[in-house]
């Protein structure tokens, strides 16, 4: 059996220069690998591209009086996007006599970028507003595998759904943040609140306090669970789980 889910969005906004474009596709195939075995394989590609909109600044403790469509900062220099590529696999096998096995695997890559030139303070009495600018890029890859062995039985007039399983995962992340500077090499960006569009170029580079790091997280887990059904109205779930979690972090 084969199925494809897909979506596309192309939206504007009431804010000048702001838009959203999203698209995704997810083909999935189910395979009968034997009388009691099934395999489901899926792939997902999704991307989201939009303009970062930080809204309208304040003045004297209230939102600044301006048209709601006004963009403070630079819409053209405020792109943000997320891209996902993920693969999933689920294998189910029924041994009979209430015993079944399920294995799930998910491998995914994520690419996320966020940049904005925005009003960073309230509007000054002189009618100017200070701007801030930065971007942040994150690349992440995930690999997780989970295996469950379940057994259903009746004992002492109570129905038991026993489950024992293990989960292993690894996540690797790279993160880089950069600060926005003007042509003179300072972060002193400002505009008039009456005309708050910043048209000069912004140069992005790492500052001494910006994040630049690499991290690897690993998890290994085992668990045991019993779902007891005393009646159709009364059930109880009892479980134990042990997790071992490790993070290696490098400040570049």
What's the helix and strand layout?
Elements: E1 2-12, E2 19-34, E3 37-51, E4 58-59, E5 62-63, E6 79-96, E7 99-119, E8 128-155, E9 158-181, E10 189-192, E11 203-205, E12 212-229, E13 235-251
Q: Can you give me a brief rundown of this structure?
A:
0% of the residues lie in helices and 71% in strands. By secondary structure, it is an all-beta fold.
Describe this structure as you would to a colleague.
- There is one protein chain.
- The protein is mainly beta and 252 residues long.
- The chain has no helices and 13 strands.
- The strands form 2 sheets. Strands 1, 2, 3, 6, 7, 8, 9, 10, 11, 12 and 13 form an 11-stranded antiparallel β-sheet that branches.
- Strand 8 (128-155) and strand 9 (158-181) form a beta hairpin.
- It starts with a strand and ends with a strand.
- The mean pLDDT is 96.
């Amino acid at each position: 059996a084969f199925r494809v889910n897909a979506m596309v969005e192309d939206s504007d906004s009431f804010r000048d220069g702001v838009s959203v474009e999203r698209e995704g596709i997810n083909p999935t195939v189910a395979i009968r690998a034997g009388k009691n075995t099934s395999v489901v394989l899926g792939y997902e590609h999704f991307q989201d591209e939009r303009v970062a909109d930080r809204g309208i600044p304040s003045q004297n403790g209230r939102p600044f009086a301006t048209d709601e469509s006004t963009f403070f900062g630079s819409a053209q220099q405020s792109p943000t996007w997320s891209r996902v590529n993920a693969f999933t696999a689920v294998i189910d096998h029924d041994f009979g006599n209430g015993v079944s096995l399920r294995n799930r695997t998910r491998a995914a890559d994520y690419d996320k970028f966020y940049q904005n030139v925005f009003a960073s303070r309230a509007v000054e009495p002189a009618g100017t507003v200070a701007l801030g600018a930065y971007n942040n890029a994150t690349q992440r890859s995930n690999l997780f595998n989970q295996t469950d062995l379940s057994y259903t039985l009746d004992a002492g007039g109570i129905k038991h759904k026993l489950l024992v399983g293990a989960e292993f995962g690894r996540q690797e992340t790279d993160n880089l943040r950069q600060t926005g500077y003007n042509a003179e090499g300072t972060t002193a960006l400002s505009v008039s609140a009456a005309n708050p569009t910043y048209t000069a170029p912004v140069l992005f580079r790492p500052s001494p306090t910006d994040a630049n790091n690499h991290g690897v997280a690993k998890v290994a887990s085992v668990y045991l669970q019993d779902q007891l059904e005393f009646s159709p109205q009364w059930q109880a779930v009892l479980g134990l789980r042990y997790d071992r979690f490790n993070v290696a972090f490098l400040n570049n």
